[in-house]
Structures are given as C-alpha cells and as structure tokens.
Amino acid sequence: MSSSFAMAKDVPGPQEHFDLGGSEESLERLKQYTRDYGDFFRVYSPHRASYTYVVNQPDAIKRVLLTNHRNYVKGVGTDQISILLGRGIMTSSGEYWHRQRRMLQPAFHHRIVGQFGEMLHSVTEAYARRWAEQARTGEPVNITQAASELTLDINLRTIFGTDLPLIHERFGANPFAIVHTESNRDLKFAYRLRSLAGIVRELIARRRANPQEQHFDFFGMALAAQDKETGEVMNEKQLIDEVLTLVVAGHETTASALTWTWYQLGRHPHIQEALAASARALPDGRALSFDELEAWTLGQQVMKETLRLCPPGWVMSRRALQADVLNGFPIAADTDVFISPYFVHRHPEHWTDPETFDPGRFNEAADAARNRFAYIPFGVGPRHCIGEGLAKYEMTTHLAHMARRFRMTPVNTEPPHIEARINYRLRSDLMMTLEARPA
Ligand code: HEM
Q1: CA 248–ligand 1 middle distance (angstroms)
Q2: What is the tally of structural domains in the chain?
Q3: Close Cβ partners of 392 (under 8 Å, ≥ 6 residues apart)
Q4: How many helices (H) and strands (E) are present in the chain, helices listed first?
Q5: Closest Cα to residue 62, out of 310, 327, 377, 329?
Q6: Which CATH number characterizes residue 212's domain?
Q7: Mean pLDDT by 10 residues, the chain (439 residues)
Q8: 338 has which bridge partners?
C-alpha cells in the first residue's frame, strides 16, 4: 500500500454518497458533516464518481485561492453559469481569464468607483422618497423586491450610464429587468439573458461610430480597455460576455446582501437605533464620498457582520488541475474542492459565539488578530470579487440614507426559510413596516 493511499484513506468524511452542489439539501448536509467532521472532509459524489473535498480550513483556503491558485480552475456549477455568462471573467480560466481581468480591473479601482457617488446618492434619494410615502400610509415595504430593484437600477447605471434611457426607448421597458423579475436561473432564463446580447452589440456599434461622445460607465471603460502587453482591445463577443457577467454578478449578490442587512437590523432593534444615531452624525443632503463611508465605523461593522453570517456567495467551487496537498492530505488531479464562506465564517476557532449577530466583533484589534482567510465574503486571492468596492459603497450609501430616516420593523419574526443555490438568500420576501424618524 502506498503511503499516499494510506494518508488519503484517513481523510474524514461520511460513508454515505452525496452530490454536493448549490442546493438547500447541500447546505443541510454540509451543516451535518461540518458538525461531524470539522473544517476538512470529503464526500463521495455518485454523479461525478469521485470525491469532493470540503475545504474550510483557513490555511488550506489560502493554498487553493492564493498561494497555489494557478493549480485551480472554477469547478462544479461553472458549466451551468457559462451558459448564462459565456466566457466572461466569472467563468473563464488561465491566461484568457488573466488577460480579461487585467483589462477590466482598473475600472473597479476605488478612485473610479468613488465617482459613482452622485449617482448612488440620487438613486437612493429617489427610493427614500418612495419609502417616506409608504411610511406615511403604513403600507409594509417588500424589502426583497426593493433591494432587487434598487441594485439593478444602480448596476445598470454603472454599466450603461447615460445610454440607459436610450436602451429603454429603443427596446421598450427595461429589457434587463428579467434579472430582477425572473428568479429561476434555468435554461429559459439563460436563453432570455443571451438574447440581450443583441442590445449590447448595437450599443458597441453606436459607441464605436460616435467616438467623440463622452461616457463614464463600465461599458465605456471595457470598450476602451487595452491589453497592456499587446495593445489589443476586446472583440464584440468578449465585450458581450463581460457586460452580461457584470449585469448578473453585480445584481443578485448585492440585492441579497442588502436584504440580509435589513433582516438583521429588524431582529436587532438596539443595533438599528445605534446605526440610525451614527448615520445622523454623517453629513446629510449630499453624496457621501467613498472615503467618508469607509470611515463610518458602525455602518462598516453592520455590513461586515451581515456578510459574515449571511454571505450571498455561500460556496465557491474549484477543480484541481494537478495533484496537490491540502491540510496535510494529498488530493488527486481533477478533484473538486468546495470552500464555503458560510461555514468558514462560523468556524469556532476563529469566531467567538459565531451564531450571534455582533457588529462590534469587527474592530481594529480583533481584525488584526484574526486569520485573514477566516473572513472571505468576497473571496480572496486573484479571483476575489472585482465589484467588492462598488458593492460596499452602494450598501453603505443606502444604509446611511435609510437608517437615519426610517425605523424598520419586520412584519414576520418566524424563523426564515432559506434558499441556498447559487446565492444564499431568503426564500420568501422580507416585509417590513417603516416609521419615519423625526427630521
Ligand atoms: C455584496 C455583494 C457581492 C458579494 C457578496 C460578492 C461575492 C463574490 C465572491 C465570493 C466572488 C468570488 C467567487 C469565487 O472565487 O469563486 C465574486 C466574484 C466576482 N464578483 Fe462579486 N460579489 C458582490 C458584488 C459584486 C458586484 C457589485 C460586481 C460587479 C459590478 C461583482 C462582480 C464579480 C465578478 C465579475 C466576479 C468574478 C471575478 C473573477 O473571477 O475574476 N460582484 N463575488
């Protein structure tokens, strides 16, 4: 018997066979296996006829996502997502991914993202006016719907900027609204999403024909982006895939993160009151800058703690290209690896009282002492979320506006039904009543 076989035999894990993936059942099984086997185990997948390794141990996460990331490509579920997003940066791998990421990266620098401040302010204000009316009539607000609409609106403005009205004019009501109105991510949705490629194609042609026009949006930045090494620009297919990737990747995650934030604030009224008081200490009536919101301690803490307990991207999958050693155990080439922020963020060695919602746990001393790979709501390493800065700016702008103006109370306080597929989110809509706070 070879020694590597002997070691491999020792990897903990259940006897039963189960196909881990993005499903509610996967979340429940993973809870059970995590209780039984801890932060590193394997489960035999009958469908793939191989073991899937669940890697929630921070040093092993570091190896997969950072120090040996070249050995890992996106894994289980990527084929399905590729039907939606083609070969955009979410799904592609290797040198091709690297080139596309390099070309898109500068657009997401916080100095650029900070320039969306005025837009974030005015869109959020428009929602605040709607909420004020609902507070007046006592009509509960459907937070899930509102967060989805708001984040789609913002997302499309960051991508298409001033061309958005043109899209509406040319193609009728917002053709991208399917991302918000259709919750199934099935083949029918994929077909409808891919049919939006025609709109992007037309916009590419329009913008290329009118180079004198000034645009400040991700689409314009992607059109202008040049490969540093070759000087090449993206072709039409690449632009379409990247634009559709940003439309989908930037929307649902941010929408569920915002919904979860109100969910938590509704269940912790004393934290909501403290947040309202600290939001009132921020300047009102103008756009808050990226840096001002980064310095808003309680707003940042509430957001971070929500993303700890309720990370929308609850599982990341990878496939090893070559054999590797993780947590002292050899894994074979082609092995599927799952990393789950949901479980890492509850790891008892790294978090005290992990199930308690406690924003104050994010403070300078604790953050410095904590293992960096124990908190990964936006992933980590070269493939970490490109939209992290934008998502945080968007969320804190919203919180600063709304927390100072409204007291939000959940209509229903029963335990929530969770949906854990591609994203971790509430299955039924979150309804809250609003009370306008005195000016
Ligand atoms: C709270 C909101 C968000 C969360 C929690 C989130 C989470 C994540 C996570 C965990 C990953 C890494 C996936 C992996 O390594 O397998 C990721 C990647 C990505 N995210 Fe986000 N995201 C958010 C918002 C956004 C926004 C606003 C955008 C764009 C406007 C965006 C675009 C992307 C893209 C393009 C990738 C793939 C990056 C690559 O592979 O190079 N995300 N996101």
Answers
A1: 10
A2: 1
A3: 293, 294, 300, 303
A4: 21, 12
A5: 327
A6: 1.10.630.10
A7: 49 93 85 97 93 97 98 87 88 94 96 97 95 94 95 95 88 83 80 87 93 93 93 95 93 96 98 98 96 98 98 96 96 96 97 98 96 98 98 98 97 89 90 93
A8: 54, 317
Residues with CB under 6 A from ligand 1: 89-90, 101, 245-246, 249-250, 253-254, 257, 312-313, 316, 377-379, 383, 385-387, 390-391
Q: Which residues are CB-neighbours of 155 under 8 A, at least 6 positions away?
A: 246, 247, 250, 251, 254
Q: How far apart are CA 259 and CA 419, in angstroms?
A: 13
Largest separation between any pair of C-alpha atoms in the chain: 75
Nearest CA to ligand 1 atom 20: 385
> Rounded to the nearest whole angstrom, what is the distance from the C-alpha of residue 99 to the centroid of ligand 1?
17
Instruction: Tell me the residue type at 200.
Output: V
- The residue written with tokens 């709109």 in the block is 199
Give the DSSP H/E element, type plus range, for residue 73. Answer: strand 72-74
Distance CA 59, CA 401 (A): 39
Residue nearest to atom 16 of ligand 1 (CA): 316
Q: Which atom of ligand 1 is nearest to the CA of 316?
A: 16
Q: How far is the CA of 296 from the centre of ligand 1 (A)?
A: 23
Helix (H) or strand (E) holding 52, with range, is strand 50-55
Helix (H) or strand (E) holding 42: strand 40-45
Q: 84: CA distance to ligand 1 center in Å?
A: 15
Nearby residues of 71 by Cβ (< 8 Å), 6 or more positions away: 320, 321, 322, 324
- Mutation pick for ligand 1 pocket among 385, 394, 396, 422 (CB with most ligand atoms within 8 Å): 385
pTM value is: 0.95
Residue numbers of the domain that contains 151: 3-436
Cα(158) to ligand 1 centroid in Å equals 15
The C-alpha angle 391, 351, 261, rounded to 5 degrees, equals 30
Residue 5, pLDDT score: 46
pLDDT tens readout for residues 42-61? 999 998 899 999 999 999 99
